[in-house]
């Protein structure tokens, strides 16, 4: 069963609307849906809440350590509450998926994502769940935008139409959240991926 949902992003108003904060957007949506308030907890280096899903409790976390040190926050909360890596879901932006696509995955590499890389290092394993929210890749755009490097791309806000697609993907993810929290991952994956067709 999933006991901790982590949304990745960077703290601060200057990053709030950027593509790299898609994980933060998802956790904010979960908090709204469960009428839960995120509060700063210094010992966990981020914003934390305990959400309730029809009989199941799950921790929500937005690390405020900046992306490349996300593992410090995740490991601190997981150790304190004795949560195993396999019971953690990390929600993050994914360059290799188009805006509007959301996919569940267990384990795997970081794909160059510094947040995932740091979490895997701090947990000493990549064996945790990921919810990948597509943000597209700069190579998919017009020539002048393709020249932009990935760092500049993820640290800029999405276009209006892209934002609408990411928001829809987050909304679809919320519809399978009960299954996710209860550990019914096959069911959640089938439902989430079916919605893409």
UniProtKB/TrEMBL annotation:
Which CDD domains would you find in this protein's record? PTH
* Site note Discriminates between blocked and unblocked aminoacyl-tRNA, residues: 10
Task: Output the superkingdom of the source species.
Answer: Bacteria
Q: Name one GO molecular function term.
A: tRNA binding
- Site feature: Stabilizes the basic form of H active site to accept a proton: 93
Biological processes annotated in GO: protein quality control for misfolded or incompletely synthesized proteins; rescue of stalled ribosome
Q: Where is the active site?
A: 20
Is Hydrolase found in the keyword set? Answer: yes
Q: Which reaction does it catalyse?
A: an N-acyl-L-alpha-aminoacyl-tRNA + H2O = an N-acyl-L-amino acid + a tRNA + H(+)
An example GO CC term for this entry is:
cytoplasm
Q: Which UniProt keywords apply?
A: Cytoplasm, Hydrolase, RNA-binding, tRNA-binding
Q: What are the subcellular locations of this protein?
A: Cytoplasm
**Chain sites annotated for binding tRNA:** 15, 66, 68, 114
EC number of the protein: 3.1.1.29
InterPro entries annotated for this entry? Pept_tRNA_hydro, Pept_tRNA_hydro_CS, Pept_tRNA_hydro_sf
Q: What class of enzyme is it?
A: hydrolase
According to the record's subunit comment, the protein's assembly and interactions are:
Monomer.
In the record, the note on similarity to other proteins reads: Belongs to the PTH family.
Task: State the protein's purpose.
Answer: Catalyzes the release of premature peptidyl moieties from peptidyl-tRNA molecules trapped in stalled 50S ribosomal subunits, and thus maintains levels of free tRNAs and 50S ribosomes.
**What name does this protein carry?**
Peptidyl-tRNA hydrolase
Its source organism is Mycoavidus cysteinexigens
**Classification lineage:** Bacteria, Pseudomonadati, Pseudomonadota, Betaproteobacteria, Burkholderiales
The gene name reads pth
């Amino acid at each position: 069963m999933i006991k901790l949902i982590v949304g990745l992003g960077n703290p601060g108003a200057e990053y709030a609307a950027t593509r790299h904060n898609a994980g933060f957007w998802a956790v904010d949506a979960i908090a709204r849906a469960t009428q839960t308030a995120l509060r700063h907890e210094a010992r966990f280096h981020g914003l934390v809440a305990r959400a309730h899903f029809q009989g199941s409790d799950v921790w929500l976390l937005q690390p405020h350590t900046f992306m490349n040190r996300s593992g410090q926050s995740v490991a601190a909360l997981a150790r304190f509450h004795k949560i195993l890596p396999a019971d953690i879901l990390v929600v993050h932006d994914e360059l290799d998926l188009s805006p509007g696509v959301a996919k569940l995955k267990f384990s795997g590499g970081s794909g160059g994502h510094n947040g995932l890389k740091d979490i895997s290092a701090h947990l000493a394993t990549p064996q945790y769940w990921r919810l990948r929210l597509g943000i597209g890749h700069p190579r998919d755009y017009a020539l002048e935008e393709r020249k932009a490097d990935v760092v500049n791309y993820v640290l800029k806000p999405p276009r209006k139409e892209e934002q609408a697609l990411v928001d829809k993907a987050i909304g679809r993810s919320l519809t399978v959240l009960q299954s996710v929290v209860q550990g019914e991952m096959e069911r959640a994956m089938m439902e989430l991926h079916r919605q893409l067709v």
